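Q: Could you fold this chain for me?
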Amino acid sequence: MTEVTSYKSSPMPLVTAYYKQLSEIMESITRKHNRTNKNFSRAIQHLMKRYNQMSRHYGTDIYIQARRNHQHYNFISTSNPSFPLATDALVSLLFQRDFFSLTVGLG
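A: Sure. Below is the predicted structure, expressed as C-alpha cells.
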C-alpha cells in the first residue's frame, strides 16, 4: 500500500517570496526615470532649429509660442520690434474679411 505523506512545510514562504518579488518589480517601475521633460526640451530645440532654417531659407518672419506646465517658450525669428504684432492687432486682423483667404492662399 502506498503511503500518503503530508506536506509538512507551509506554502506561506512561497507566497511571501512571490509578494516580495512583486513589490520589487513595482518599485523598479515607479523608480524608472521620467523622460517627459527631456523629450519635450529636445522637441522644442528641434522645432526652433527648423523654424530658423525656414526663416533664413524663405525669408519669412516666424513667431511661435508654446506653453507647458505654466512655462512659456517663445521663438521669434527676427529682431524687428514691430514683429510679432500686438494682441490687439492680431485680433483685429482675425476679423478682417480677407484674413482667412490670405492664410490659406485662396485670395
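A (continued): The longest helix spans residues 36-58.
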